[in-house]
Amino acid sequence: MTDTSVSGLYRQTMDKRRESVKAFGGLADEDIDAIYSMNGLPRDLADRMIENVIGAIQVPVGVATNFVVNGKERLVPMAIEEPSVVAAASNAARMTKAKGGFHAQATRPVMVGQIQVTGVPDPHSAAQRVMAESQKLIEMCNSTNPTLVKVGGGALGLAARVIDTIRGSMVIVEIEVDCRDAMGANTVNTMAETIAPLVESLAGGKVRLRIITNLAVKRLARAWAVFDRELLGGEEIVEGILDAYAFAEADRFRCTTHNKGIMNGVTAIALATGNDTRAIEAGAHSYAARNGPYESLTKYSKDAGGDLVGSIELPIAAGTLGGAASTHPAAKAAIKLLGVRTAQELAEVMASVGLAQNLAALRALAAEGINKGHMKLHSRNLAVLAGATPDMLDEVVGRLGSEHRVTFDRVSEIVKEIKSARAGRPGA
Ligand code: MEV
Questions:
Q1: Of 158, 363, 371, 378, which shows the fewest CB atoms inside 10 Å?
Q2: Can you tell me the distance from the alpha carbon of 322 to that of 177, in angstroms, rounded to the nearest whole number?
Q3: Global pTM?
């Protein structure tokens, strides 16, 4: 494990921080420039990415520190508009670093495509006729992407089942495709569309939808870690975290927010690396409800020494190749900074950050509450809105101290006081 040259990033200026991160990640000037998204997304590239382009919106990219995943230290780029998320992840990662960090494992990157066949007279025999031709159908799928097959991926299997719907029975044919380092939607959709005519003639009905499912149950990422009891704040905090976890397991209103906190981390990496955040979100929440009730994506217990053991399991359909991950300069630089060589490695880091994010939220909620962390950045933003100049910001935060009343009115009052004190000062 290399020690990091990046400790204390939060005390550095943005320029110095960018130099530290560049050195740590072995980035070139153009990589770090690309991450500063002012230059990161050229106009003509933006114009080709979606339709009717009029501009691009910028979201800050921060780096989470202290992450050791499977023994390797990583700096984690996170694109997110919400304060405290990056700090919270870094803080949680620190609490497990001395205990070995995160252990993570991702399954083979297998996605599933669905073909819907309607109006089939005898759906069960139709499903059997399709299954009998699986080998041929798989070969047809693979003929659409020889490169994928050459690198060890491709269609692996096919199944057909009958479902009952409000519009009668339907045959659903599903193909399993190892997408290697791509997210895989284009690959899988192309395969589904290619075999649809043969499926239709075998089944004897009408093919309607041919599309990937985002409930990626064959593409799971898991991580677990031991969090040090003393670094967490002692036994009482550990008990508080376990109570918070029990609350989430028992109540779907709380559980939704609990899982949202996990996705703060997972989605922020997905966005920074040019991945489809909506696909990952949809898959995660659907997976949380796979047993019926909506459940926590994380689990917690206490080990014999009183340390907290946390684990996470969720589907992560994220790629390091294809789509914006291959075209957006800032996303490419973020993947380079992360140092992941495969989509599986990326998913392992994402699961670890999801666990860290959840642990950090539960710890804060069980201890001082969530507002304290938010308030420092929030009060600086309010102060700017209230007319403070940059040299006043530290003073505003200092004066607010431990006040719970961080409202725009209160911050405006303080800014006014500072201004009049400075105006009355000789030489001011
Ligand atoms: C806020 O973005 C996320 C939290 O609400 C998560 C949670 O409550 O567990 C703090």
A1: 371
A2: 16
A3: 0.89
